[in-house]
Amino acid sequence: MEKHVVEHYPVENLPPELREGLEAGVRVKVTVEVEAKPDTPDKFAPFYGAAKGLYPTAEDAIQTIRQQRDECG
Predict the structure, then answer these.
(1) Residue 65 scores a pLDDT above 80
(2) For the chain, what percent of residues have pLDDT higher than 70?
């Protein structure tokens, strides 16, 4: 779990909803804990395995990529 702590933070810098009920002019200790990270979809997932078996070896794939790169300038 990610946790961030900032000590001696001025209450005036807090957003209004967090400042509520706190005395003006004091400093506070702010602790933020990440509960859960949202699932980020893998935009390349539909392409995994799409070229499976296209190149017999990794070196063949690298050679083809280099040739195409060189042709493009």
Answers:
(1) yes
(2) 100
Contacts of 30 (CB under 8 A, 6+ apart): 5, 6, 9, 14
Alpha helices in the chain (DSSP H): 16-19, 58-72
* Alpha-carbon gap, residue 11 to 72, rounded angstroms: 57
| Residue in the block written with tokens 């070896």 | 57
| pLDDT score of 40 more than 80 | no
Cβ within 8 Å of residue 8, ≥6 positions away: 27, 29
pLDDT of res. 55: 87
